[in-house]
Amino acid sequence: MTKTDPVLTVDRHTHPSGATVLLVTGELDHHTAGALMGALDELHLARTDGLVIDLSALSYCDSTGITVLVTAHHRAEQARCPLALAGLGSDLRQMFHTVGLDQIFTFHDDLDRAVDALRN
């Protein structure tokens, strides 16, 4: 059996509320982090309706992926753009908690809850 390279896709859309949503699918690691970084680079963050990074289809995240998410947090903070993470599975949520990301991010079970939180 041959191992294939990890794959990551990032799909951007606007939620009916106006929030920008980045749906991250696959493995977020040192091989694929550039895809999410590129999607973040294309955003013009401003004090808008917010940004949700939907991780419900994320199967893996390493330290490089964490660095990209922390970079997203810093960019959103500088732009005063509210940011929320949605759809983190229990394993990834535990890992994020272990490394302290629960201190800077707000986690929501799904996209709708994340969008609702941005409005409050």
Helix content: 25-40%
Number of domains: 1
Task: Give the termini distance in whole angstroms.
Answer: 50 Å
CATH superfamily caption:
STAS domain
Q: How many DSSP H or I helices?
A: 4
- String of helices and strands: EEHEHEHEH
Structural class: alpha/beta
Strand content: 25-35%
Mean pLDDT across every amino acid position: 91
- CATH architecture tag: 2-Layer Sandwich
Structure write-up:
There is one protein chain. The chain is an alpha/beta fold and 120 residues long. It has one domain: STAS domain (Transcription Regulator spoIIAA), CATH 3.30.750.24. It has a 5-stranded mixed beta sheet. Strand 4, helix 3 and strand 5 form a beta-alpha-beta unit. Helix 1 packs parallel to helix 2. The radius of gyration is 14 Å and the shape is globular.
In short:
The protein is an alpha/beta fold and about 120 residues long.
What is the element layout, followed by pairings?
Blueprint: E1 8-14, E2 20-28, H1 33-42, E3 51-61, H2 63-79, E4 83-86, H3 90-98, E5 107-108, H4 111-119
Parallel strand pairs: 2-3, 3-4, 4-5
Antiparallel strand pairs: 1-2
Helix pairs in contact: 1-2
Task: List key phrases describing it.
single chain; 120 residues; alpha/beta; Transcription Regulator spoIIAA; 5-stranded mixed β-sheet; 4 helices; globular
